[in-house]
Amino acid sequence: MKMSSGVEWALHSCVTLSQSHEPVPSARLAELHGTPPAYTAKHLQALARAGIVRSAEGRFGGYALTRPASKITALEVVQAIDGDEPAYRCAEIRQRGPLGISAGQCSRPCAIARAMAAAQAVWSHTLADVSIADLAADIDADSDGTAMADVRRWLTTT
Description:
Blueprint: H1 5-17, H2 26-33, H3 37-49, E1 53-56, E2 62-65, H4 74-82, H5 111-128, H6 132-142, H7 147-156
Antiparallel strand pairs: 1-2
Helix pairs in contact: 1-4, 1-6, 2-3
């Protein structure tokens, strides 16, 4: 399974937004993550279209999560950025070529399609079981409890 680099950025941005009580300008998120502002804006718009973040205009505008971080899953973010199409798409090649079988003999998906669908289901369920709040807690644990405090402090400086 290959995901775009935007997925990583979007997940980090959602974790960052989970640490702020105020909207965070896209330029500030771009600065924090070292991403180009246009790239940042593009992915924030995708997250907004998916209902994960909302934008606020004005002097104190920016982006904020639309609901608690514990209610936003990693799968939602992945799908907002990369879409919800499955990674594997069966083209029914078993019906082609000199040994191809008839469509009538294909009453169920082939073994390859079944294996790929099972893998997709496990992948999706795993990401659906991880919230943005879980990611923030794990990132914090990986840093001996300093990462989220550092993010909150950074967000309050100008």
